[in-house]
């Protein structure tokens, strides 16, 4: 008897090479892994149409027809096999360009066949190219259903592990484990909500009897996936005793924060900022560890809110660490924070990979003895040599750009209590995605921009009109303002006919000979990159030519123009981030999206969305609906959304809410999953961790 843990080598006819490829290409090692490799779509083989009812551009269709004639036609590459089939309603022409001799030998005139393929109309004649076919028997009608299609790689196809072969192997695997699949969900949950049996759901997701069965099987497996995800995330909040982790209690709102408000803050916080600061303060004085996510659109003032939290920590004798994803952003945070805290008696320091050795030694000493109260830096903060006297607050900017292990190492630098955690995201995230990515965090939303910020005017511009665009940009430059030009590639690509950064840089120097043009990209040495950025920030350079390295955090209020070349190559989130680099000063700002006339359907939706709205939350929803969670910027680095094998956060929001509610209810009863009825669930979650689905310490 085999189980889900049995190795795939027990399957009949599978070769050692195929076993190796299954592991290497799609991570399949056991029968359970194979059964968990779900179809990406299905071909409907339940409908048999009369020839007269076939329609062009209506997907693949199926008929039962009798072969009337065959003939070879054409020469060389144009050689083809033509066949004519008929039923009582009409005639159907079929043509094959590959495997001609094999197909010819299979086809017998006068025999009825089941034909399945896409339909086209040539002249007034219905035609199918390369239809699949088999001799019609009553058994065909009995097994007609929804045929699964599986993603495969080129290496798998070469090794004869194409979709049809995977279907055969999965059908055999399901037969081998039949009757041995234990349901890891507690029986009371299954019975209360009338969930289908797990073994049936696993079989039916691959080989559903009909569409209602497929819908039911998918609902069960999507619930399982989201439920176990939420259990894992919610358990991050609790310690070994089943209670939320303790955190340092901040009992003083503090003289420091009062002085900051009254003396150093040159403007009023928005109502949304004040609300989020209050939520943070309530967390920090509760005696429990704060785990909070700040969501806000570009320019909504997330960093200022985080600074308020750091000042609360300092007023209660604690140190804070702010970790940024790049040196440029860390330096910018350091400069702006230093300006805001001037005269408050707070010592801030910057630690990056390029901090000189002597300065680093002195800084580390100041951290250990508590002199340094605010440390701002990059990944250098997680080095073992970096030790705090009393780390009370960690602020993580651009959370999705840090790995789980890196965040966990910083978390471990706390003293007696775990430090409070404050996470900031670069762009707004739809609620369903936020719950999946940051399910263990409380979420605060800054849904208001500071007064006086003018909406950025976004224009779709075709390459043919680039001359007019250059002239318009020059008007802005003459008015004393600055411009970004962003390109998707660093150098010419043999496979993508894109405008490269190098070519664009040279052209712009010729177009604007009276202005200084700087260039920055990810492959430049840090000192060159910093020099170019400083030249632009100081106004010495009027034009900055860049890749998406400037996507996050660069703050040049005098820049009023953003030109994005090959804009169709960027995701919505990236486009919105890049646009957010302008519109930071008093002047009206503009974003030009440059493309060819010919745009794909999704590219057009992205461009149109950018032109129609500046609202990052609306843009995030469109992005999620277009591409699903697995492809969104940020989610790949976070490593969570991509491990959802079946759930689609764009469409499964209600199921996620339901799964969240059930997970909270279960953990309220048994936070450590120790009850006998939760034994299998705990084991399943542990197994998922070992498969690479560890959701612990996220945030």
From TrEMBL:
GO biological process: DNA recombination; DNA repair
UniProt-recorded name of the protein: ATP-dependent DNA helicase RecG
Protein's job: Plays a critical role in recombination and DNA repair. Helps process Holliday junction intermediates to mature products by catalyzing branch migration. Has replication fork regression activity, unwinds stalled or blocked replication forks to make a HJ that can be resolved. Has a DNA unwinding activity characteristic of a DNA helicase with 3'-5' polarity.
PANTHER family (alphabetical): ATP-DEPENDENT DNA HELICASE HOMOLOG RECG, CHLOROPLASTIC (PTHR47964)
Family per record: Belongs to the helicase family. RecG subfamily.
Domain Helicase ATP-binding: 283-446
Record's catalysed reaction(s): Couples ATP hydrolysis with the unwinding of duplex DNA by translocating in the 3'-5' direction; ATP + H2O = ADP + phosphate + H(+)
Residues spanning the membrane: none
Protein source organism: Candidatus [Bacteroides] periocalifornicus
Root EC class: isomerase
